[in-house]
Write a structure and sequence with these properties.
mainly alpha
Length: 87
């Protein structure tokens, strides 16, 4: 396996980890906005009613951040031949 491929995989893994961190920050900010929204409009959004799109977006961002960061860590930690065969 050429060294260039392994370097490209590590670079891609680092970029995915950075993207995961940025998405995590966005998820935290959206979660804070959603908490403020739930406190201000309890009758529309909260534990007794359905959640709004802001709450769903915060959860989706958190799950996406976790998935992207895990994939990036996998690429950085084990860029082996088995990984290259599936790519």
């Amino acid at each position: 396996m050429p060294t260039r491929d392994m370097d490209d995989l590590r670079f891609l893994g680092g970029a995915l980890i950075s993207l995961g961190l940025a998405l995590g920050i966005a998820a935290a900010a959206t979660g804070l906005l959603a908490a403020d929204h739930m406190a201000a409009a309890v009758e529309f959004c909260g534990p007794t009613a359905d959640h709004c799109n802001l709450c769903v977006a915060a959860g989706a961002l958190a799950v996406t951040a976790l998935c992207v960061a895990v994939i990036g860590l996998e690429l950085v930690s084990r860029p082996g031949p088995a990984l290259l065969r599936t790519a």
